[in-house]
Amino acid sequence: MRFELSEDQALLRTSTRDFLAAAFPFEKSRRVMEDPRGYEAAQWAQLAEMGYLGLTVPPAAGGQGLGVVELAVVCEEMGRACVPGPYLDAVLAAELLVAGGGQEKLLGEICAGRRLVTIARADGVFAGRQEPAARLDGGRVRGRKWFVPFAAQADALLVVVPEGVALVEAPFEVTALPTIDPAQRFGEVRLDHAARFLGPETLLERVDQRAAVGAAAVLLGVMSRLLGMTRDYLQTRQAFMRPIGAFQALQHRMADMLLRTESTRSAVYRAAWCQDAGDPAAPLASAAAKAYAGDAARLVGGEAIQLHGGIGFTWELDVHYYFKRVKTLEQHYGSTETQLERALAAAGL
Fold first, then answer.
1. pTM beyond 0.90, yes or no
2. Which of 199, 222, 243 is the last residue of a domain?
């Protein structure tokens, strides 16, 4: 199958790249990453004003009503710019609210950037101890959730419980959890909150597919940027009176990085197209895209550090920020192992 972006989608890519270059220059993002919030309110308002927060939300709820291919385009550019903050988390929460229905007012506030909602999902074993799952009990959600993205900044959480999905409102008791990625924030949340039940856990099926494609697209953007930075360095750094990029052994490694990046591109946009087209292969394609992107990005990120000759992980260079983003995305939004299990299940194996 030959896939090409439409004229509108190509224009979205160009305009998003230009917008992020102006609004999220990396010199500024470095400073934002040092802020406890992990993102800047003014930049978040800009994303809302440009319509990115409501990209896939129906127009009736204040969104743009665009598809998964457009989401992949934007997420790829977000990865390329290494944008800090909960962009994908907010988009996925909006997707879940759309699936649950009846939340138009809250969706409008999310699209306008006035409220932040993220999904609280992870529970179970943490720090070597088995913890009971959070549960819906008498109209209240009780228990704990771990690795909740931007929990301390969230105005509401969509909590996944055995009964389904429930919406709870802030304030929350949050304990910050460490992360190697300075652009991301995670927290342990203690819950004893009145809840609005949205629906059964089947609501997450579509959201999981969106999450897989969105995260894989961010990884694609990260890989593209790492590839470009490494190429530029190999053309500049000299040894024996010639650029080190002239050495065949390094060219082979760069070729492998390019192969992994372009293969990820094919997997991401195939999965996005399958979702938009309602293709039955969408669950398999989405899981495969995220699983492949996680492995490919780990290789590309590692090679970028190595080919910078040791300085890639110094604070002065930007390479290590992208590498840390790879390590975070590899585990979240469905780890490689989780996605492989989903792919096998979708293939009937």
1. yes
2. 199
